[in-house]
Amino acid sequence: MSALTIFADNDAREPLWQSTNAEAIREQLNAQGVRFERWQADCDLGDTPTPEAVLNAYQHAIDRLVAEKGYQSWDVISMRADNPQKEAMRGKFLNEHTHGEDEVRFFVEGAGLFCLHIGDKIYQVLCEKNDLISVPAGTPHWFDMGSQPHFTAIRIFDNPEGWIANFTGSPIAESYPRLA
User: Fold this and answer.
1) How many C-beta atoms surround the C-beta of residue 52 within 10 A?
2) Residue 122 vs residues 8, 24, 27, 82: alpha-carbon distances, Å
3) Sign of torsion, CA 27 33 34 38?
4) Is the pLDDT of residue 135 over 70?
5) Which of 14, 60, 120, 143 has the highest CB neighbour number within 10 Å of its CB?
């Protein structure tokens, strides 16, 4: 189940607010300029969907976003617990960073935790199947795929070469809850 937990950026012990209600999550995030929507991931793509099958199944939704926002390219990322690079990939994304463009993800299956550092708060968004999140360009954030990752997501980019991470050097991500 999708969830949003908001913390003060100086205290990871006690949440300020939390919910699993998709509409409440959308309202909280939209107020911060973060797009959060629930799309219908209703295509059975099997246990290990190919990127082509994923894109074919959701091209209509991608086209709608491209028409609205002018995005230039998209691809599919999948991560499984048996991937030999899972620890290195997880470690890279656990560091707070920004991008010069929006970071847009639609979760076709599985889950991941986006942590957004906006003002004096940390917004932890557990994204699961059917969730679309768009983190605005320049927003400090990190992503946790968990120690046993299992997800497939469509990534949508402003730049045809994809995004480049600009690491902030802040250790803040180490203080907040992570996925198991």
Assistant:
1) 9
2) 6, 16, 16, 30
3) positive
4) yes
5) 143
CA-CA distance, 20 to 158, in Å (whole number)?
30
CA dihedral 89, 28, 70, 156 (to 10 degrees): 20
Show the tokens assigned to 154. Answer: 């469509």
Phi then psi for residue 27, to 5 deg, are -60, -45
Taking the CB of residue 17, how many other CB atoms lie within 10 A of it?
12
Span between the terminal Cα atoms of the chain, in Å: 15
Residue 71 Rama label (left phi>0; alpha psi -120 to 50; beta): beta
pLDDT tens per residue, range 43-63:
778 778 889 999 988 998 999
| Those residues with Cβ within 8 angstroms of residue 171's Cβ, 6 or more apart along the chain or in another chain | none
Cα distance between residue 112 and residue 76, in whole Å: 15
Q: What share of the chain is helix, strand, coil (3-state, %, to 5)?
A: 20, 35, 40
Give 18-30 pLDDT, tens digit per residue.
999 999 999 999 9
Contact predicate 123/116, CB 8 Å: yes
pTM over 0.90: yes
Supply 26's token pair.
């959308």
DSSP code of 178? -
